[in-house]
Predict the structure.
Amino acid sequence: MAPLNSNSSEIMHGGSINSGHGKCPFYLLFHFETTLGLGLRGFLYFLALAYCFIGLSAITDRFFRCMETVVKQSRAVEEIDPTTNSKVIRNKKVWNYAVADIALLAFGTSFPQISLATIDAIRNIGGLYAGGLGPGTLVGSAAFDLFPIHAVCVVVPKAGELKTIADIGVWLVGLFWSFWAYIWLYIILEVWTPNVITLWEALFTVGQYGLLLMHAYAQDKRWPFVSLPMKRDERPEDWVPEETPRCRKGDEDPHNYSGIHEEQSLEDNIPQKDDLASIWKRQFIDAVTLETAESRKVNSPCLSLAKAFWKLLIAPWRFLFAFVPPYQIAHGWIAFLFSLAFIAGIAYVVTKLTDLLSCVTGIHPYTIALTALAAGTSWPDLVASKIAAERQITADSAIANITCSNSVNIYVGIGVPWLINTTYNYIAYKEPLRIENVGGLSFSLLMFFATSVGCIVVLVFRRLTLGAELGGPRHWAWITSIYFMMLWLIFVTLSSLRVSGVI
């Protein structure tokens, strides 16, 4: 891969090496790319970007399995039975669910954006200006999380099925920190130190992630003085219901699964007595096996061809991710970390492709980050929330993943990269970090805040009228979904027009 760093800061700060008027000298893999027309190169780089997003989608389901395994971990606790006064051994969950939603689910599904922003900060280290790729992606991702993901989750439950938030207090805590995150970002960009970020502002931004975790835990445990006196519905101990074991290929009735679940290997079918080497081997076999019993039963030739094409398309990703160790090892922790490493690797390629797209098309990188990158890197959020809305008994994790991911985007996704850059600038230059395109970023923050109010109002209205945030009568679910998508289109359109100077 050819180096792009020599002029990447110029690209990201609005300087356009080609801006559609000349050749873009950079290339992704081979030098002959520079001999192609700019339009063709832009099309090819866009396809490569889309393929990276497919990879993120494929790894997300494996990550979600790892996260579930980690959360289900329990430990033996010795207690005294008050009735018999004898010692009793009970298994208690290691993880608090409220903390797990924020520290594992929200952080993990936001890791593509966090990786992208951190990579952008590292390659711009030493410059007086922060890279614009990270903040644009993270603000756009927040809008994608709040609107399109809510739009998907609200129609996922079966017709008439209602899924409600069991612990409304924890959700309100997450919602508060989510809104405050963007208010805080606006304050430090426009009010206290306009156009610059100081070291202490970056430190406090990152530190608020810890405050969010503490507040969520305090609310879940109903600590006095720091928790809201909100009634909590009973949340089942096993909040992820046990799944019906899938049949092996060739059985009379293979389980019918679709969408992202097609990415899941059949490793769950391996009996417990099989050793981990056999399970890992099975992952590779599943990755290179294109035809399944399900696909052989498809009657429509067109549908069968489409499924075969899709399996062929994702086969390289499935083979690559087969190197992720089985989640049965170490309670899922090793697979969890490996999944994050693969996500970071894809994010690195995405940053290179974004540079090239900006270079060959002349489109402002902030616009690309706000739209294509935000949607693509938020795909794991969408998949995780969709799976949670489908498989979990309550709506807590599906919706908590949305609100908490938005908080993580700011406190970690923007805070950590800014902390890297401000620390370096403080040591090397004794100067704060300057922010490029503050006006466009601040306008996006205001637009997000305004449209998000419209989203939350509808969720509260559904709670009061239908008794649930997700599901319900089919027509009302679809009306809500369309409304959320309209809010997202309004945000993206106005923010893009502002960056381009139209408004």
About this structure: The radius of gyration is 24 Å. Residues 5-242+339-499 form a domain with the A middle domain of Talin 1 fold (CATH 1.20.1420.30). The longest strand covers residues 74-80. The CA atoms of residues 80 and 87 lie 5 Å apart.
